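The authors assume throughout that readers already know how a fold can be written as discrete tokens. For illustration, here is how one protein appears when written out as sequence plus structure tokens:
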Amino acid sequence: MSLDTPKLAEAARQVEICNACRYCEGYCSVFPAMFKERSFASGDLTQLANLCHNCRGCYYACQYTEPHEFALNLPAALAEVRQESWERFAWPAAPALLFQRSGVAMALALVIGIACLFWAMATLVPASGEGFYAVLSHVTLVAIFLPAFMLPLAAIAIGLSRYWREVGGGRVRIAHLRDAMHSAVTMRNLSGGQGQGCNFEAEDRFSNARRHAHQAVMWGFLLCFASTCTGTVLHYGFAIEAPYALLSLPKLLGVPGGLLLTIGSAALIWLKLQADPKLGAPSAWGAEMAFVLLLGLTGLTGLLLFAATGTGAVPALLAIHLGAVLALFLSMPYSKMVHGFYRMAALVRDAQNKDVKL
């Protein structure tokens, strides 16, 4: 892809100025990666954009922001390239152009997902079953959610392969994965690379609030996913069917996961409302907010569903919760959710560039 596209050309202009200045050398991983280059092709800019965590520390430290004639705004320039790259690599491309830019599209996906679940509950009534299975059978749930999970993963795999080719990724070694996983788990780059914290919502003041909120969402999502996996193992491996007791493994994983997902999403929403939208991709603000709201709704409705066990509220709450999960899964390759996959790929590529040794 040529650099004559406006977003890539502007990012290249700003990166070249940063590369000459080098004041931010001790900041996040973007700058060491940037300073290794002498010129920047589209793949280089795509890699830097996806490596950027939008902590904004470089912007508040920069002497060349407006009103200087250079008018640098590197967080925004990289955010625009990052957004454009997700849309370009997506397969098929049309849903990405919709879900990356429109909060209304995310809301519509949620409404459709909930409607589909209410329809399934009204027309596919199981002959027998306990708990949730008295509303929707296990077979029906598998028939709905297995393809809704696997097909988006296949679409993401296609997008990641396109990304890997553009950024010049090579053979991945265990050391690369280890370094990338450490960065992802600790969210090292959300501390600005210096451990002081992020400038996302507090401008020139440092804060670890965004880092902690992201960690809560990440671990919450992983715990909820682990809860589902353990339930599947219990069902097929040990013939132990839902509903599960509070002290069972699915609940011990799922309840804390739901709490972390709900609290973390609420914190991210609050932080996003405090932050300056001009330092991100303004055209994607609404879709990003809708995505975080969907994440939080998924966690909250799961907790409410557990609390309502044995009551008449279960059918409605089940439809709302599973509708939210369905919308989350189906939009995964095309919404802000995909940023986790590309960021992990960028961290692996960065580890390759640093030539991590076994």
The radius of gyration is 22 Å. Residues 6-84 form one domain. The chain has two domains: 6-84, 87-353.
